[in-house]
Specification:
Number of strands: 5
Distance between the termini: 40 Å
Number of domains: 1
Number of helices: 7
Strand order of the largest sheet: 1-2-3
Shape: globular
Helix content: 55-70%
Largest sheet: 3 strands, antiparallel
Radius of gyration: 16 Å
Length: 193
């Protein structure tokens, strides 16, 4: 079940769904959205998992299925497809970070999962970054600007364009582009430390 707050609705897992409500309003059927957006969610998960080591125990399809199972357990009134994908992106982030933490604990760091930050730097530069390092940097960015951190999650984990993310965040495309540039620059600097 979700609870309403100033920015949207927050689920049992603590993730905020921007613009979502627990009451009346536009109410898109979650099951219908899941069927309609299944291929897109799998593509997003496949892109996120592309940089993972060979033999990774978490497959893109399993990741999407787990996301959809979590959605079933909550009473969310979706207002748009972009909102659905945004929440899926946040959920994927949580799941990948949790998975990386379990592996790091089990192997004392030897088995950390790696991903490529293909959108945080120039497209040609795809330096691999440890999932946990990215999560630490995102947590620091959240302290500075929750909206910029969510923008990174929407772009990186959700595969959204700046225009799609601006709609989810309720800001202009120009504002989203400026904040994306600033967030990308800040994260690049933070990850090089």
């Amino acid at each position: 079940m979700l609870r309403n707050d100033a920015d949207g609705a927050t689920g049992q897992d603590g993730l905020c769904v921007p613009g979502a409500t627990t009451g009346a309003g536009v109410d898109l059927d979650g099951s219908e959205l899941a069927v309609r957006l299944y291929d897109e969610l799998r593509a997003v998960a496949r892109r996120r998992m592309a940089g993972e080591r060979a033999g990774h125990t978490l497959e893109p399809t399993a990741l999407v299925h787990e996301v959809l199972l979590r959605f079933e357990a909550q009473d969310i009134h979706w207002q748009s497809e972009d909102q659905f994908i945004a929440y899926a992106a946040q959920t994927m982030r949580t799941m990948l970070v949790d998975h990386a933490r379990r592996r790091a604990t089990a192997k004392r760091g030897d088995g950390w999962s790696r991903v490529t930050l293909s959108g945080l730097e120039d497209e040609q530069a795809g330096d691999p970054v440890v999932v946990l390092e990215l999560e630490d940097a995102l947590c620091k960015l959240e302290q500075l600007s929750q909206r910029r951190a969510l923008l990174v999650v929407l772009r990186f984990y959700g595969g959204m364009t700046v225009e799609q993310a601006s709609g989810v965040l309720g800001v202009s495309r120009r504002t989203a582009q400026a904040e994306w540039t600033q967030a990308r620059s800040w994260l690049t600097t933070e990850l090089r430390r």
